[in-house]
Design a protein that fits this description.
Largest sheet: none
Shape: globular
Number of strands: 0
Distance between the termini: 45 Å
Radius of gyration: 13 Å
Number of domains: 1
Order of helices and strands: HHH
Number of helices: 3
Structural class: mainly alpha
């Protein structure tokens, strides 16, 4: 079980890091979110970047 817990924690830390680097979120905001909520925000960010690339901006 610790292996799964560690994997979830590493993924959570990675997603938090990416979201923090965008400058949109504050540390306090992302720390209270679940991994599922973080993933939703992460996917929104990824879709936004894809749209920017597709539109040539």
């Amino acid at each position: 079980m610790p292996v799964l817990r560690n994997a979830v924690q590493k993924r959570r830390e990675h997603v938090i890091s990416v979201l923090m680097n965008t400058g949109v979120f504050k540390q306090e905001e992302v720390q209270t979110l679940t991994l599922t909520e973080l993933e939703v925000e992460y996917k929104k960010l990824a879709n936004t970047k894809k749209g920017v690339i597709k539109n040539g901006q």
